[in-house]
Amino acid sequence: MSSTYIRYTYNTTALRLAAVFTAQDLGALVVDNENGSNYRVIATGSGVACMSAEQGTYGYIKVPLGLCKECDANGDVGDLAAHGGILASDSTPAFQAAATTEQAEIAWVASNSDAIVAEVPVPEDFDGTQAVLAQAQVVAGTTDAFSATIDTTWAGGTLVADTLAGSALATVHQATATIAAADVADSPDTVTIKITPGAHTTDAFLLRSLRLRYVRKS
Predict the structure, then answer these.
(1) Which of 32, 57, 67, 182 is packed most tightly, with the most Cβ within 10 A?
(2) What is the domain count for the chain?
(3) Is the domain of 128 the same as that of 210?
(4) How far is CA 147 from CA 5, 167, 203, 212, 218, in A?
(5) pLDDT category, 3, cuts 50, 70, 90?
(6) What does each C-alpha distance from 39 to 5, 23, 56, 69, 216 come to in angstroms?
(7) What's the pLDDT tens digit per position in 75-104?
(8) Which residues, 6+ apart, have CB-to-CB distance to 82 below 8 Å?
């Protein structure tokens, strides 16, 4: 088999750079799940010099935080008396400005796990035969590791649930969840996304950004 059909996948950039490639790996595809890039093996050994980045492999579905609304466990937003689930500085969760940078963020105080929901369009070059990686920039604390259930519905299809997993860090870091190819519609027009934080009795959870990384159609 040609090495161009060999595929290696690494969950972190550090693991990718530490990998050792031999002559039989020349031309192999290397996937870095942390930075969202693909590479080709161009030399034996390990490190940056052994790989060349490929362009245009992935596309991104970005979820503006301002679109998100509070919802119940079934994904329904509140009625008019409840302002239709609109988030504000005094809602729970709150839509607020981050300290110092004033970046928009959604904040859940400790022990609050109210869900949020948003619907966004899916680009025409979306390949529904491939897995999708949810990537969120989050802040937690030194006690409670960030975690949340991410429910997705592709073009009104079956509701699927995955775990958005982060770390016990009080600084901005990435939380990810893989949505299996079998759970993704082939040619969806839209995707509905619901985020429900996990237990966090000590630390607040902050969501700074959310996007879905997909494979573009070849």
Answers:
(1) 32
(2) 2
(3) yes
(4) 35, 8, 12, 17, 33
(5) low
(6) 13, 16, 11, 38, 16
(7) 999 999 889 999 999 999 999 999 889 999
(8) none
Cβ contact 171:101 at 8 Å: no
pLDDT value of position 55: 67
pLDDT given at position 1: 44
The DSSP bridge pattern shows strands 29-32 and 7-10 to be parallel
The region that residue 83 occupies, defined by phi over 0 for left and psi between -120 and 50 for alpha, beta otherwise, is left
CATH number reported for the structural domain that contains residue 71 in this entry: 2.60.120.260
Half-sphere exposure of 121 (CA within 13 A, CB side): 3
Task: Determine if residue 111 is left, alpha or beta; phi over 0 gives left, psi from -120 to 50 gives alpha, anything else beta.
Answer: left
The string of pLDDT tens digits covering residues 106-141 is 999 999 999 999 999 999 999 998 889 999 999 999
pLDDT for position 184? 94
- Cis check: omega of the bond before 197, within 30 degrees of 0: no
Full domain range(s) for residue 180: 59-215
Whether residue 140 contacts residue 181, with contact meaning beta carbons closer than 8 Å, is answered with no
